Predict the 3D structure of the following.
Amino acid sequence: MAEESITRDAPAPPARRDDRPLVKRMATHRRTQKAAPYLSTIGLFVLWEGIVRLFDVPTYILPTPSESFVAVWEYRDAIWMHAAQTLYTTLAGFAIAVVFGVLLGALVGSSRAIYDAVNPLLIGFNSIPKVAVVPILVMWFGIGSVPAILTAFLISFFPIVVNVATGLATLEPELRDVLRSLGATRRDILVKVGFPRALPYFFASLKVAITLAFVGSVLAETVASNLGVGYLMMSASSKFNMPLVFAGLMVIAAMGIAMYEVCNRIERRSTKWAHRGDQ
Amino acid sequence: MSGFIELDRVRLRYQEGDELALEQTSLEVAEGEFVAVVGPSGCGKSSLMKLVTGLLPPSEGNITVAGQDVSGPISIVGMAFQASTLLPWRTTLQNVMLPLEIVQPHRSQLRRHRAAYEEKARALLAEVGLSGFEDKYPWELSGGMQQRANLCRALIHEPKLLMLDEPFGALDAFTREELWDTLQALWMQHGFTVILVTHDLREAVYLADTVYVMSKRPGRILERRHNPLPRPRTQETSFTSQFVDLVHELRDKIKDVRAADG
């Protein structure tokens, strides 16, 4: 409406009329960008459905996504219970990983000596397949939530430690000199510069850590639990109920995406200064 | 000797067995003097800065600043480097006020007299032409503005000594020359002592009362040139024959240094 009245009152310069399609094109572009993740997901499902139907793959090998969705609905009560358990163990393990990871990362990042001492141990520990650790945890804590929580913790704390330590250790030497010449203590430097500076690194690591935490908890559930999506999938596959197995996978993926997005939002909100330029 | 800063036959090597970084350096700077140190890159100019500010202890010799032996960081100093190192999560004003959160006695008074300190920081920012930018973040400022803010951060706690390590090295020529005037005005207004490390000879001659020429590594002071050009120096000054001659002589000296042993 406003544009119309402008053109009626005074002849708009031709340049104005030319850039309208551009603005429109950019709006369309933005809309496509927003829709892209949904389109790609739907595309994947369509492709999957098509291939299974085209080659007539038996359900006990690979169910179609539609069969899997039907299974999600059919077993919704069981899935709800198991998913809640998995979410609980994952978040509990993740929470411990955050606390422990930040503390250890701060320690490792603020002292060269501690870094040298701890680094090989950390790398060695991280290289151990966590599936090998689960039986040990079961021996110690029995079957149930505890091994799942601990596995989620063990698998997800490493990226947090590394990133927090990196953020702290990569302080510009000039800035350190400026602060030291003012008489700043190590603690001053850590509080005023180190921690704020490490914050984007920390949040970036959370996104990696939360998805790893799901890997850990589901892994432990498949081996040593009678609750959780991991257990549900194991018991379903032993009954050749492949649609339910895939339903479990989809639920895990959905929870992973949701939690990732939560971390992403928190990251953007708390470290705006580190994301300048990309809106 | 009775200078504000005295270096008496100072030697520095970073590690036992290493080559000397600084060889037999003696230097005397009067209070309120503007000194520039020029030399080829890697000549130990930055080492000199760290020695005077107490960030590094000399391997041999003595350093005194304001009549006191330097044995650790001295808080009467403000520093600024080529990289402005402003903190991106703080506004310009908060960045400038950072030293006040660290240096005594401001540190313990900051909470009670916050408004007064803020007023002071705003006044200083206004002095370098940054009023209106107090609440902008450093990454919203141009390179020249960032260096102006950096100078303010180095001066907010009213240091007696300002140490500058190629502070304008990364700026374009026009911005750099504007900042020379800003720095000169600050210095004439506040009367602190300045040691400016640079490899820009025009910058040294434009700003300094005394220019020291250093040799290649191991660094040694080869020459001390008094610069009698009247203040305030302006762009016009830089076209006078006196100015040009002095730059020329220093240039020749540096050329000799660079040619010697390789």
Notes: Chain A touches chain B at residues 172, 174-175, 177-184, 188, 192-193, 196-197, 199, 271, 273-274, 276 (CB under 8 Å). Residues 1-16 of chain A have pLDDT under 50 and may be disordered. Chain A has two domains: 13-54, 65-274.
